[in-house]
């Protein structure tokens, strides 16, 4: 079998942005005349509220797409049909381009990769200088930190400085990207509590990976709920890890209870649950990705060309999952090994990983969470207005 | 994949089903309930399997109460009346009423074989109560049935074309099949023919339509050439249905010759005026609600010079119907649209001006019902949704007849057995779906009823074939 990913990457890179949008527009226009897929996800009802698509519309629809591929499996116009629809591939190509498009413009570095490298290296440098130069033991105050406390390795003020700085950087770059995205897709509805609540509900339950009830046609063309469940493990695992950090901060700074925390405490329980969720979810999704990559290509007479995600975006998906997996495993190890001599080195690795991830997150596929959530908000905000319009001028066969 | 099948020579199959569309799949699944070895022959490769069923989206069934998918009851009497109101009414009243009666159990059967449903699609307001939409459309339905077939150990062979049936007396003994490995003889105890109509066989259509057939577009695959139907006729099967009976709608003249499916259909007609190549109107565009009339427009256009017609509308109504796949031509004047469409601009402008003058002022335009907005003193009239075409930009699209399927097929008994011209019936050959739709339909069509015929008769034929095989 040929190497479809590599070939696809070359082809995709050769197509200019206008070409990707033109192709998505061609396909979506056929979809809007057909409409068989509107029961699967939010993309099709949103498409049906539009007639002439702008590039902002296409970006919005691309981010609304959760790549469940049910539309591809159900489509009678996929290759070898001459209409040659492959909407999941077309929309993921648009996503890949727009993820870069909305990053804040800086004079240097010019490329996403360069920015990632610069941010990651800067993070590690800051960590090294502030953290390890200042040193651990005793830095947090008068009393020496207990065994198993992170402050034996890195002083508390240094920890706060490094991660506060990196978190602020991450949030600012993400916010700037989000703002650019929001303007470009003519976003509206952030001020609407109803739209926000509905979008949060859809994001929290991954409603758009349900595929009308059957689940995702992924990997392969058999519907399955595995992807939605595994993605839920990742998302909720990540949230639990954030909550664990917050709980630790509260314990220390408000309850005056410094680490290490007992096993039956909020920071440890949340951290363990979150870490386990991330490990299960990331490992599972990586396995699904591998299986998806092994799907037969178009030269297999038994199958039409599978609905491949844009190859560059697929690589970013691998990278994000691998990064999160590394974070989770190193985080769990700091707990398991906190009473051993390995604690220090493991914590250093974990902190370095966290620092690097904070710094490069805005340049990674992590941004799909931001853009997709904004797309959901905009989508939910469209609905009440439109149903009012529909009630005013009932459309018979629209 | 299941265990290797015994070679066809070793033992005859209990039931061989010819055709992998809805009717064939339903017949195979039903036959497998009581027959042990069931083979389904699909002419297409996997990627294109399902025939015309790939392009379907709903099924019209009797239901005495509403539910979330079909809000409101649709009784036997109402469906029967709807069927009587299209074309020349039911072809064979006995078989048609059997079809309508049996339709009531179709949705439950489909659900139990893996079909999922969705609320009525946007833009199909008038179909929501009568027709049940399956999630994802026809290809998703075909995929679900194949999943059920695999679970039930029905054998499916792809890329197989049934060429002929071999008979001993009135009993079929084998199906002659061509495929990638050449021609082979497949022995069968019973055969279900669910191979569709002959709409893609332009030469055959020409026998009844003359050269007009050269201008027909075919909405389904080019493989629907009626090969099995022709073989059955040659073997003495009795024809059923009108030679010119077909389901045909107005589709974009730019559509592919074959297999364009749903996306090429145009729903602008009730909100537009339709002119022929001479720039003259020829039929009441607002005669009835669109789902009750969309199926006559293929035939209407087939009767016009050059088998082409043009729908022309203005910006007031542009958002009231599904956006055309290829987009309309647009111009600042009606004459401009006509010129772009290659029509006599003056003639079309005069037709539209005459129509505009005839529109009766005062009624309230309402696309959701027969609104009585009509013309006065115009021939032919426009009975509903008539508004002056006066607000630029103006739009237009050229349309051709898009043939969905032909009705003329084989006559069957109440248990789907194929009748013969001698007055009897083949002992073990059955038919289901479009190949026997001429027993039910005459010249008109009712949206979603093709799936009903296929499912009802697929079940009847599958069960009867299994009985005949035992």
Write the layout of secondary structure elements.
The complex is a heterodimer of chains A (398) and B (470).
Chain A: H1 4-14, H2 17-34, H3 43-48, H4 55-64, H5 70-74, H6 87-101, H7 112-134, H8 156-184, H9 193-205, H10 226-253, H11 266-293, H12 311-336, H13 343-360, H14 367-392
Helix pairs in contact in A: 2-6, 4-6, 4-14, 7-8, 7-13, 8-13, 8-14, 9-14, 10-11, 11-12, 12-13
Chain B: E1 13-18, H1 22-32, E2 38-41, E3 58-60, H2 76-85, H3 93-102, H4 106-112, E4 117-118, E5 131-134, H5 138-151, E6 155-157, E7 161-168, E8 171-179, E9 182-193, H6 202-209, E10 217-218, H7 227-234, E11 239-240, E12 246-252, E13 273-276, H8 290-293, H9 297-302, E14 309-314, E15 329-331, H10 334-340, H11 345-358, E16 394-406, E17 409-410, E18 417-419, E19 425-431, H12 449-469
Parallel strand pairs in B: 1-2, 1-9, 2-6, 9-19, 10-16
Antiparallel strand pairs in B: 3-5, 4-5, 7-8, 8-9, 11-17, 12-16, 13-14, 14-16, 15-16, 18-19
Helix pairs in contact in B: 1-5, 1-12, 10-11
Question: What's the N-to-C terminus distance of chain A?
Answer: 45 Å
Number of helices of chain A: 14
The average pLDDT score of chain B comes to 94
User: What is the helix/strand order of chain A?
Assistant: HHHHHHHHHHHHHH
Major β-sheet annotation of chain B: 8 strands, mixed
Which of globular, elongated, flat, extended, rod-shaped describes the shape of chain B?
elongated
Total beta strand runs of chain A: 0
The Cα radius of gyration of chain A reads 23 Å
